[in-house]
Amino acid sequence: MAIVTTSKKACSVNPLKMSQPIGGSFAFMGLRGAMPLLHGPQGCASFGLTLFVRHFNEAVPMQTTAMSEVATVLGGHENLEQAILNIYNRIEPEIIGINSTGVTETNGDDVEAFIRLIRQKHRQLEKLPLVYVSTPDFKDALQDGWGKTVARMIEVLVTPFDPARPRDASRVNVLPGCHLTPGDLDELRTIFEDFGLKPSFLPDLAGSLDGHIPDEFTPTTIGGIGVDEIATMGQVAWTIAIGAQMRRAAETMQVRTGAPFRLFERLCGLIPNDEFMAFLSQITGRSVPSKYRRQRGQLADAMLDAHFHIGGRKLAIGAEPDLLFDLSSSLHEMGAQVTAAVTTTNSPVLQRVRTEDVLIGDLEDLEELARTRDCDLLISHSHGRQAASRLNVPFFRVGFPMFDRLGAAHLTMVGYRGTRDLIFDIANLIITDREINHRPTPDSWRFTNSGLQVVSPRLH
Amino acid sequence: MTSLPTTIQDVFNEPGCARNASKSKVERKNGCTKQLKPGGAAGGCAFDGAKVALQPFTDVAHLVHGPIACEGNSWDNRGSVSSGSDLWRRSFTTDMSETDIVFGGEKRLYRAVKEITEKYNPQAIFVYQTCVPAMIGDDIDMVCKAASAKFGKPVIPINSPGFVGSKNLGNKLAGEALLEHVIGTGEPDYTTSYDINIIGEYNLSGELWQIKPLLDELGIRILSCISGDGKYREVAYSHRAKAAMMVCSRAMINVARKMRQRYGIPFFEGSFYGIEDTSDSLRQIARMLIESGAPAELMERTQALIAREETKAWAAIERFKPRFAGKRVVLITGGVKSWSMVAALQEAGLEIVGTSVKKSTKKDKERIKELMGQDAHMIEDMSPREIYKMLKDAKADIMLSGGKSQFVALKAAMPWLDINQERCHAYMGYVGILKLMEEIEKALYNPIWDQLRQAAPWDEFDRNLQARTAAQMHAQAPDPVRDPSRNGVRTISFSNQAEVSEGESAIAAHGPKLAEPNKPCTSSSGRCIACKDIPSDLQPPALQAAE
After folding, report:
1. B91 CA to chain A: closest CA distance, Å?
2. What does the buried/exposed string (b/e) look like for A224-236 if buried means 16 or more CB atoms within 10 Å of the residue's CB?
3. What's the pLDDT tens digit per position in B277-296?
4. Residues A108, B98: Cα–Cα separation, whole Å
């Protein structure tokens, strides 16, 4: 049981957190033909856009209602109306996904009412799906914005389903958290298909931000799940949610359509994947394909090979709750000690992180904890790079954003295979660090006043 | 202390701005930011502009007062480099919560300043105002004043909430803050006749250091650079310079002009991109210093240095000329780079088929005409679709632009090179232009392009298969039935114009194309491209945001 505390600082230094609205826009990016729209000043969208472009190395659709100071005083109705019309007329999206920001929330814009009025006035918009989600900047964090937005998509876009009617046993809904990459989604899709299931991912970043080259230049998202498919998501036999952030969305789906759900808080590690395979086997009545039996063996072997290196390592991890929980548990299960854990927002999983305390704080906190507790591996998104270099410890990048390395979209951690690769990557990082920074010298074991030194001294 | 609206009005009424000067009185009153179009706008806000302009000051703590979005989503995103302190790369924000919105964020801001002072003890703290605290009425001027008095160090308010306007306005508001609170508040240990300021240079990828050795050799001292690799103390005493060079033509014109007005520091607008521009700029600096009292022999030394360096550079460029012969370049960038880059590229024998002038001043455009001839293809505002088409149709061989529009080129399998702030190479001066040539050559002649332009092997296989099937059916179809009006063509609703038929006549009528519309829209692409005509005046955000 970890004790969860919140930083008391007035000044956040080197933030780990990103804002809720861009988490919402992020979710809309997994829909086909979508245009995410941030209701706020243009900077809100511009910063988010830059962040996504740097992470994915892709053109990213994102628009803004461009609230000016005057528009803010007068209320955002007119700007929202113009934005929707402009986007509709010029881009013809299949859906516009709207998230509020700090400015429009402080102002108290009643966006649902605005949308009703806009629809009344402009009949041509009658059939255009408009999904609005309230996501103020000054509350919660990126993963909350994602979770709320997916739940809202379900409320607005999924057709209610009569629970008495028979369900399509070959279909499943998959509600992935924002900590899963397009690579993770592709891995999961393959697993579902190998069990003979047709999965509907909501949202499906693997269709839109996996780096494929479209035939034409498209101003909206270039793929993802279609609004038509979302509408039919009520017919499935099961909904599978991944990450605690998706509980709300899964419950919404159940209430709306009666589809039962199973929440997997983790899909990295041997035991979680055993549970996952057992579940798929159970709902399909098929035995686990031999491919996965082999992969399980490979993972087991990887764990044997890598435990020499990962075992006993003191880790400092900074990540959003679901990613923190998944990753820290897997590495804990490899014998590592999670010595410093910092996260961005509250979540029921935090208490179960296998460490003594979890701090809701920033990267300065993580750096300080890593220093005082003598951690020897730092894990966070790319913003942790400065801390890692000051601490002179190896640095493993996970999560969003990852703007200083390539291939962020394809980093895969789920499934037996993803776990295997993750373990190798981290073990290799540790081996490299030992070769570069911890070669023994004639003085490594010389007597010191501090008693017998078993481990060669750290160099920083 | 002036209010924000007054400052903005003042900034808009900038006599040093060529575009402003050419406006009528009424137009001028309306200010120079274009009205932003909801749903069709992109690019940074005023806060973004202010932060971009000042963040390269290295020994200052940059504290952003606002909710997490403003700083949390944007920090550590610029490629400026420091020769000393790395404080500027750390991020400080008050990360305002709901409670702060209700009760006001001033106390939190004050405590934040206190924490920074205690932990990092910076030379100064710059406090950036953002939209939400501006809305709820947090008075950052007052907090900064109180904190400054209490902690005995400069705490400078930068009044630039995002919603007051564009990034460019933010650059200028940042300049106003410097003029009001920093410039003229310190004195250098000594002055010389060779002291200059460089304004609007951000030392991206260390570019300033491609120039500094030249100035060092001439004995010219960069008294202050605003703001690349800058230090707070240097800005404070920058009013003692003898001359100034303004590098980015529109960002900080107000600083240069007001420093001339207040302290009599003459300035000129120049560029270090390209051989001739670099030489011109060096000569201008020497000329201005001599006019301000430096010995005349400075010019002789400058000319000698220029002659030596130019000879070296021209000789080095020779080797690229055969490689670049007949290669066409499209430039999508802003302001000064639209012409300073043109000159540089032409020097190496590249043909410029278009350059963007979206952010350029009238003067910039005149320069372009001078360089490229009267019929220069100036791209006022080209949609990504048009650019994509231009590249796809091979009307250009390479595109140079900012990071956000790169995918237009790359997805068309066209070479592309980053020339804006996120790039990782330095292109200034005589050394830089060679680096640029090298990068262009590497991009143009990379072996990937030929491979990527080849279709996947299955495309042709599929086409042949289709053709065979259609031919077979064609052969079976008796003549009279070929008239589609007499049978079986109907429209179904996969997407607007998709036609599908059960009858053979449809195949006859449409030939091998039939298989295409028959395919429902799959999720692999935004829409069924084959059967939908898309309007061409699209303005996706990716490109508008480009600068």
Report:
1. 5
2. bbbbebbebbbbb
3. 899 999 999 999 999 999 99
4. 13
